[in-house]
Amino acid sequence: MPETAPHVDPRRWKALVFIALAQLMVVLDATIVNIALPHAQEALDISEGNKQWVITAYALAFGGLLLFGGRLADLLGRKKTFVIGLIGFAAASAFGGAAVNAPMLLAARALQGVFGALLAPSALSLLAVTFTEVKERAKAFGIFGAIAGGGGAVGLILGGVLTQYMNWRWTFFVNIPIAVIATVGAIAYIHEPEGSRNPAKLDIPGVILATTGLVSLVYGFTRAESEGWKATSTLVLFAAAAVLLIAFVVVEGKVRAPLLPLRVVTDRNRAGVYASLGMAVIGMFGLFLFLTYYLQIVKGYSPVKTGLAFLPMIAGMITGSTQIGTRLMNRVPARLLMGPGFAVAAIGMLLLTQIDLNTSYAALILPGFLLMGLGMGTAFMPGMSLATYGVQPQDAGVASAMINTSQQVGGAIGTALLNTIAASATTSYGKSHLAEARNLEHLKLESMVHGYSVAIWWAFGILLLASVVATVMINAGRPSHHQPAAGSGGGEGKGAEQDVPVPVMAH
């Protein structure tokens, strides 16, 4: 539907504050519990075998239901699903903070994932339909990209402070005031443009196939980490995921109102964004985990000091997103921000492969963090904007959900894949150096650091691959300041070689 003079909401910047606040809550919740986990495990007597479920329950529900949540936002209205998601997330957080045993905590984490899957795509699609002017969209996505990229590191800092000075339960309770403020602000300031809702019926077969397929995939990587890649249960889950997701693609091509219209993912630019962002997250998530353990166990940092050590990475992300990405997004093609951005982050990762028992934070870790933050911030922001460009307003929710899905699945894959690589390298190093070891404790730490270093080399390679994919696949030209002409299939791959304007949702 052509829009030559779209209505500009005067309250849009205030709305952005509350959309960004909700996104921060969802993103930081993926990591805030990591630092608190040992304390929660001890307090609730959670077994070693069940420990991983505190993380996995959230990832499974979130990753599995994101497409469903995105489509619900398109069907019911984004503001409504946004507010429902906020209230539900706050309630689940209260339930988790009050947990008296392991099943109660795991149920709370799963519920957080369910409501997060409703909240995250609603937030991004609200942003996409609220900011339609080129320069404003660049600023809005710059702020949102910085939060999406830096939220995980913020979670590590906040988790450290709350765990050390208060109680592990506050890593849950902290969400309640954030959700209350965001809900009040959303009701007061968020306005959803008319005509952007999708009145079609819900694609139930698509929901079932997508959800079970994604859950099988995420759970498969989780099982690979604990049981091994060749374990029967791991292979069965991967096979099930492949069958279910292939069936999902077949069904989506045939039903009248698909859960995920294939035009959303077959567009070359969006496919490039989803693939490269997913790969980048694979590298990043594993790194957060390794360096948290490295700083605490090897370097002897407290939880708070560990969190503060990540601050330069957050500063780099905010700078890359708001100062580099935002300023250049309307002047150069997205691939010339995303490709070099991921390459700079990879150089930062390359520095971190050199860690040993006596590594200086200032000399090696700090510059590595700064480069990673700058690179990821620069790449994330145009990626998020381009991923929602050119979709029909009725598909904005599900296009947004695909970004979150690539990040969640990427996070699960990264954590499992890199942890497995690190554990294997640690074991083999320990065995090969056992005979010459004078101090077993020293050997244990050396083996651990060697394992981290090997895994970080893999993460470096994955980030380089993300840079190549972004440079080769994304071919949108330099954004211009005009609205795209309306067309029957507008934005779905046609005219990809032309100068493509970033900002507009309407066709």
- The rounded Rg comes to 22 Å
Spans of 5+ residues with little confidence (pLDDT < 50)?
Answer: 1-5, 479-507
What count of domains describes the coordinates?
1
Number-wise, the strands total 0
Tell me the name of the CATH homologous superfamily.
MFS general substrate transporter like domains
- The CATH topology is given as Growth Hormone, Chain: A
Largest sheet: none
Helix/strand order, N-terminal first: HHHHHHHHHHHHHHHHH
Distance between the termini: 5 Å
Give the helix/strand class. mainly alpha
Shape: globular
Share in β-strands: under 5%
The overall pLDDT average reads 82
Count the DSSP helices: 17
Classified by CATH, the class is Mainly Alpha
CATH architecture: Up-down Bundle
Residues in helix, %: over 70%
Explain the overall architecture.
- With 507 residues, the chain is mostly helical.
- It has a single domain, classed as Growth Hormone, Chain: A, CATH 1.20.1250.
- Helix content is 76%, strand content 0%.
- The protein is built from 17 helices and no strands.
- The longest helix is centred in the C-terminal third of the chain and has 37 residues.
- The radius of gyration is 22 Å and the shape is globular.
- It starts with 11 loop residues before the first helix and ends in a 34-residue tail after the last helix.
- One of its GO terms (molecular function) is transmembrane transporter activity.
- This is DHA2 family efflux MFS transporter permease subunit.
